[in-house]
Amino acid sequence: MKRVILYGGDESTGRGASCMGRPRGTTGRLYFGRDDAEHDMADGLLREGFLPTAAYEAVLSGRKTLVIGRKGAGKSAICMRLTTDGEHAGDTVLLTPDDAAGDEIRRFELQGLTGRSSKSLIWRYVFAVHTARHVIAHATERHGRRHPASVRALRKFLRANGEESEAQLYDRLASGTRGLQTSLSLEAFGVKAALDMSGSSEGTRASVQLEVLEGGVARALKELDCADAHGPLLVLVDQLEQVWSNAPDSKDMVMGLLLAGKHVSGAYGRAVRCVLFLRADIYDVLEFTEGDKYRGDEVRIEWTPEHLRELALTRASVSLGRRLTPEELWQQLFPLSVAGVPTADYLFSRSLARPRDAIQFLNLCRDKAVERGHTRSISPDDVTGATRQFSEWKLQDLAREYLVNFPFLSRIFAIFQNTGYVVMKAALRSRFDEHREALHARFPEYSDTLTVDGVIDVLFAVNFLGVRRGSEVVYTGEAHVSVQPHETEFHIHPCFRPALNALSSTELHPYVPRQRDVFITGDQHVAGLAVRGSQVGATMGFPVGRDFVMVESLVDSCERIRRQLGRANLPSQTAFEISVQVGHVADDASQLLARMQQGEVRDAVSHVVAATNYLNTLATQLVENGMDRGTGVRSVVNRIQDETRALGRMLGGGHYG
Q1: Each residue of 501-510: pLDDT tens digit?
Q2: Where are the alpha helices (DSSP H) in 161-304?
Q3: Separation between Cα atoms, residue 202 and residue 184, nearest integer Å
Q4: Which CA distances in Å does 267 have to 66, 122, 223, 264?
Q5: Which of 161-170, 532-541, 548-557, 575-584 has the lowest mean pLDDT?
Q6: Eight-class DSSP state of 479
Q7: What are the C-alpha distances in Å from 497 to residues 282, 389, 393, 418?
Q8: How far apart are CA 572 and CA 595, in angstroms?
Q9: Span 112-125, pLDDT tens digits
Q10: Which pLDDT score is estimated for 622?
Q11: Looking at the DSSP assignment, which residues form a beta bridge with residue 491?
Q12: Would you tell me which of 102, 110, 253, 478 could form a disulfide with 118, CB atoms 3.0–4.6 Å apart?
């Protein structure tokens, strides 16, 4: 029978929908699982609704031993799945350090060794003890009562060093630190007393003692000679982020773990495999010369929208007790489309590409439907109702996810509140300068990072901002190439836009038909015309036909601006939004012209003045948002300014010289 030994705790975000109670209708029974793998294994869908990925298969086969992914990407799901009966042929040991264990490792040091080398020894000790306990249990269960001498020696060692009974990871670490810093009892391996190494450093003595222990474990594994018959022992280490602090001793703790994990395969051959699960933000900040040795061991978890669709379908099917077709899920249980976008595309484009986000968003849509009494299916309003709350969750979660490495994130996010989601570097520099002094005062240790370029790099790295490259907007989930100096156009990820109220591509005031004295620019002569617009027609002596000419000219100007938009190299959504507002100006003018042609008396001059003011303000906003730098907006701004000057000359002659 497979043995699974767990050491440590778990985590939960508390957002997973519950399976308890008596759900009503199909919607009430629809469920996508818990947020965290530990609870999803216990009372969620991880056992039946697990989706084997390339990363999982690589770990299960033994090709990869270092699993890297962002928070919520599914590292712990793979880890927990490997502990399930029927998945891995051998036994497993799961180590999840808590605060006490993490503190014990961080404080461990040996004179004569670097911090990472010292910490690699304590990890190796833990792995050796767990392997020794596994060997003894396995020999008893599979090899009868008469054990080889090497197995009996391991039992004696464990008894002599207080490691025979079950213990928490902290207790095992505490025992190991005492033994390695002083001396282990090694009589079981033929060493009568403490090793005679007078004059040697503390680190050298500990290394030699550990080699004796590992040699004893390796002999027992070799004498049993049964690894090929049942699969290796898997030692799984997960949730290092729970004890991560970004301090030097914390980095040494993780680098020591990497060194120890690599050492295991050499010390015990095929009989033992150590698999490490690390958050990407932790692994990527480590700096050590041996890093290139781990490339072949690494597998990074990355999810595509297609994989997330499959995950949603699998879990929905399990929750309803029957295999659903994609059409049943995305056209019957969920609406066919939301805001004109296919529902699956809508959902997965507005969340980060990882299972936890998908599960939370899907469950939230389902919860909104249940709250509104929708027992048979989820409506488009249920999905849009869930969108803002989900966005607020994710913005908060992003700041918490990177709180250790980037504690200033939540204050940086405020810079993007109530703006357009297309952010030009020039505009960001202007906004950031307003906050620079306060940020440096609050986070002086991050002053080198808190520059415009530094902030852009951080926001791109955490997937808050994407960068425009050619006709595409690239987020870090799709490419790991950092932001280049020549890149100036950035986009807030759709996941965070509702929470920031950044729903339009650029910050534009909408055109209000026949609005006067609202959009006033710095050109006071136009403002003056707007104020006395009702008097202009009477004082300028225009013939009646001149009113028609002015309004027709306004319509023609709008059409030329829209044609310029079509030629400009603009973000498609930005071009669309500008075109919509200019179109409103043209439509309003066309309606005025139609009324005038029907004989209605209208104040055409005031109308054209208000429209000219609006177009001038539109150009000013584009410049202030930095949109005229590095994109085709400059040509659009020039066209707007040319057209408003021409209209101004028609309105007031010398006023637009």
Answers
A1: 999 888 788 8
A2: 169-181, 202-224, 227-230, 248-268, 280-283
A3: 13
A4: 18, 15, 15, 5
A5: 532-541
A6: -
A7: 27, 11, 12, 9
A8: 34
A9: 999 999 999 999 99
A10: 83
A11: 422, 466
A12: 110
